[in-house]
Amino acid sequence: MGPPIIESLLRPGLIPVKRRAVAAHARRIFDRLVKSRPVNSKSPLPAEVRVIERGWLNCNQIVLRAPGANVLVDSGYVSHQDRTVALVEAALEGEALARLINTHCHSDHMGGNAAIARRYGARITIPEGEVRHVVPWTPQSVWMERFDQRAEEFAFHDTIAAGDSFDAGGLEWQAIAAPGHDMDALMFFNARHRILVSGDALWENGMGFVWPEAGGHPHIDAAMATLSAIAKLDPAVVIPGHGAPFTQVAKALATAASRLKAFAEDPAKNARHVAKALFIFSLLDKGRMAVAEVPAYLARVAYFGELNEQFFHAPPESLGEWLLQDLMRSGAVAVEGGFLRATAKA
Ligand SMILES: [Zn+2]
């Protein structure tokens, strides 16, 4: 069981997020809780579990080593697939890869599936609920065109569902439903070492964005329930889809929960967050974009128009202005010679 304070924070209505002082107080309590908990911060992961930390365009690759039965979790974004294969080869030290399992089928987690299949002929397993997103394969059915994202079509061999378990790295992993960022996502938990492979359900400082909705917030509710499920698992270490593995799990849960609560109270705030996240993702994919091209880009990619129509109600030309100002103020982008680039690691 997680510390009771997590449970109470995850219950809706308890954090008045607009009163930052209360949230800060909760954070201090969490910090104390976390500090008082013994963790082996030097090597929280067994040697069989190797994490290839990538950036924000490519998710992390997790290589679970076992003789003759190496398993990879998630394959990165399509445009960096050669680098992904090279990194996986290095982590495998010349051994073969038996299986690739995806936490979810977003473009930054399955974009390298085809390349990994070509290199290793590995068995590819995707979450059962993701099948409808990738079969049939069309740019639209996998929702990428709408967001200006890409992936390469891949064939999968079987599926995995919540409640299933699998062996990897000589350890048993249980698949657990992780709806929210992706309603069909899974996370994987090893009870012996209390390791959670969280995908985009929980990062050290947040989580994958959650779709905004004009009425109600089913995705946010689902994401909250997933955080609650994570608190109950009480992982000693979380290997997130992006960023380094971390042991201060209670703190991460509190951060994610308070953000979700703020988004539930202000859907437009969430919509702005999603617009920024998608734009930065595209910028990481492209490398750079002419500042002068931003308004035309936002007009061309359907989802930005949809967000504007539903949440911002701004004249289309002011959308780019707001986005650029906001991203520059936060340091998420830098401008050089009339070109925009993301400051985050791809
Ligand atoms: Zn991701």
Give structural notes.
With 346 residues, this protein is α/β, with parallel strands linked by helices. The protein is 39% helix and 16% strand. The strands form three sheets. The protein has a six-stranded mixed beta sheet, with helices on one face. The chain has a five-stranded mixed beta sheet with strand order 7-8-9-10-11. The longest helix is centred in the C-terminal third of the chain and has 20 residues, at 267-286. The chain is globular and about 60 Å long. The two termini are 36 Å apart. Bound molecules: zinc ion (ZN). Zinc ion (ZN) binds at residues 59, 106, 108-109, 200, 208, 241-242.
Give the gist of this structure.
The longest helix has 20 residues, at 267-286.
Sum up the overall morphology in one term: globular
Give a list of the ligands.
zinc ion
| Low-pLDDT windows of residues | 1-23, 29-41
* Order of helical and strand elements: HHEEEHEHHEHEEEEEHEHHEHHHEE
| Number of helical stretches of at least 4 residues | 12
Report how far the terminal alpha carbons are from each other: 36 Å
Determine Rg (CA atoms, Å): 20 Å
Number of strand segments: 14
- Report strand order across the widest sheet: 1-2-3-4-5-6
Kindly report the average pLDDT value.
Answer: 89
Strand content: 15-25%
Q: Determine the fraction of residues in helical runs and give it as a percent range.
A: 25-40%
Q: Profile the largest sheet.
A: 6 strands, mixed
- Sheet/helix structural class: alpha/beta
